[in-house]
Amino acid sequence: MKTNTALRRIGILTSGGDAPGMNAVIRAVTRTAHHHGISVLGIKRGYNGLIHGDVVELDSQSVNGLITRGGTILYTARCPEFNTEEGLKKAADTVRYLGIDGLIVAGGDGTLRGGLDISRLGVNVVGIPCTIDNDVGCTHYTIGFDSACNTAVEAIDRLRDTMQSHERCSIVEVMGRSAGHLALYVAIACGASAVLVPELPFDFEKDIAEKIRKGRIRGRSHHLIIVAEGVAGISHLGEQIKDATGMDPRVTILGHIQRGGMPTARDRVTASRMGEVAVKALVDDKKNRVITMFKSEMQEIDIEEALAMKKDLQPSMLEAAYVLTQS
Fold this sequence. Notes:
Low-confidence stretches: none
Structural class: alpha/beta
Radius of gyration: 22 Å
Number of helices: 11
Shape: elongated
Strand order of the largest sheet: 3-2-1-4-5-10-11
Mean pLDDT: 95
Distance between the termini: 56 Å
């Protein structure tokens, strides 16, 4: 394997929505780079910081304890300027000015596509998929998904106590942007009566009202409906349930609490492994890659190929949800 002996300095940024495990990525990249004698620049506020040269040098001491912390010490920000030809050129010029030989970008689909754009200007980029939505097509798993699921499950378990006490129907909206992976996983984990995802149409009478009625006949006193945020009309859904069943549903939007908190063991390990593999790809003189996970194994794929991939909901998960929400 060819080794890049000219690799002196790498940069790392986090961009888009934060995800538990981003700090663990920063820690792993820094420690692995230093193991290979490479210095690391942390780029603050994503691509905005790359355009304006907002950087800090990272060493092993500065990343101590990061593996347990949620959020990102490098901060994250949207950057409309980066989507312009001028902004993109400024970012590439900053990379060259600072002597960055390889750029690691951690974030969701938008972040990885930003990495693809700047790679076309001669910057060597390695992407690490970090998003609670788990909607990056080239990888089975994205950093932050497990933590967000556990946060949602914990919140819903608490909500269930009051649902049981009041014999009530609760409609809970979880995050996920335009994908239903998070909603589907949480619905199965929480024993929901129904789950609605943006990828699939639903029939209110069959998929919601009749399930509630059948559950009541079988002695179920409370009902939980999980809705992905990409499904429109959550308030109207509550009104429909009230009109159809006489129950008075309560709507809870979990929102950004799902992004916060300590990452789970799975996300800490995945982030650590992906960070280590990302640096190794640069050391091995790989060009413009995305680190992915397939069946628990780490791989690296060409960034153009990776971002052309799509991800659908798992048929086996859909079948399980269908069977388990019948009663």
